[in-house]
Design brief:
This is Putative amino-acid metabolite efflux pump. By secondary structure, the chain is mostly helical. It is built from 13 helices and two strands.
Length: 304
């Protein structure tokens, strides 16, 4: 892999994580007048429409069995991940969910090692994971002297982390098909929306147009649909194709860091010494994991 191409992959990942790290503000605002499933379905419907307008070319498969990978990616990365995350928030603290979701890179690394066979891990990766996870823990539980667990919500959050890891592996495989990234992302969105349909009735999908067109709500849903969904899923999938599932996923550790920075700027929240220590540990862990993962190709070459 050329140095320029690898740099592009890292830049795409960082840009994606910066946007995803700020989406909690938009979601928090929208939850005041909309249900989680309403936000979720409308967000990805907007994303699918946007991608269709940007690149209105039909995806023609080289092999029909490849369709199964797209369906699985839509089910895992769109429907199941976001539903599990949102439902988990109904039963446990957001801080609990934030910490548990951050273990997704670990599951991604294990799955990539087992199923892709082209990516292997070193001892330094696990050291970086532990350091970064400690940092995420300090950030998320800042201000809580007692960690309260709710088995139902926390188990759902673990399942969400596992599901996202499966999605990362699937997108790595889809990237090997060499299709246009916008087309592949749009196809994944399509299946995500299809699999989401049964949940609309269960979780009371009844959006109000009057509520939706209010300036604040409209801005935030467009930000989630166009920015966090349409744009960022394209950039994320492109980064996975360039860097691989493991290298890309370790950047998820940065989400709590971005969240804290955004909270200070937008919500005027204060950062404590514990949170600052968490930020430092998270960045340190990310650096160690990112710079110590080796990638073994079919020819046995090191592409790092």
């Amino acid at each position: 892999m050329s140095e320029k191409k690898e740099t592009t992959g890292h830049l795409l990942t960082v840009m994606t994580i910066i946007v995803w790290g700020t989406t909690f503000i938009s979601t928090k605002v929208l939850l005041q007048s909309m249900t989680p499933v309403e936000i979720l379905f409308i967000r990805f419907a907007i994303g699918w429409i946007a991608l269709s307008l940007v690149y209105p070319h039909r995806l023609r498969f080289k092999e029909r069995k490849q369709e199964m990978y797209f369906a699985a990616a839509g089910l895992c990365g769109i429907t199941l991940y976001y539903l599990l995350e949102n439902i988990a928030l109904m039963y446990t603290f957001a801080s609990n969910v934030g910490v548990i979701i951050s273990i997704a890179p670990f599951f991604t690394a294990v799955f990539a090692h087992v199923f892709l066979k082209e990516e292997r891990l070193t001892f330094q990766f696990f050291v970086g994971f532990l350091i970064a996870f400690t940092g995420v823990f300090l950030i998320s539980f800042n201000g809580f002297s007692v960690l309260k667990l709710n088995p139902r919500g926390d188990i759902l959050a673990v399942l969400a982390a596992v599901v996202w890891s499966v999605y990362s592996i699937l997108t790595k495989k889809i990237g090997e098909f060499q299709y246009n990234t916008i087309q592949t992302t749009r196809r994944i969105f399509f299946y995500g929306l299809v699999f989401m349909l049964p949940s609309l009735k269960i979780f009371q999908f009844n959006p109000s147009v009057v509520v939706l067109i209010q300036p604040t709500n409209l801005f935030n849903i467009l930000f989630l649909g166009l920015g966090a969904s349409a744009l960022c899923f394209v950039t994320w999938n492109a980064a996975v194709r360039i860097l691989g599932a493991v290298k890309t996923s370790v950047y998820i550790y940065l989400v709590p860091v971005i969240t804290i920075a955004t909270s200070i700027i937008v919500l005027k929240e204060r950062i404590t010494g514990m949170a600052m220590l968490g930020v430092i540990l998270t960045l340190t862990g990310l650096f160690i994991s990112e710079n110590r993962i080796t990638f073994k190709t079919k020819e046995g070459l090191n592409n790092e």
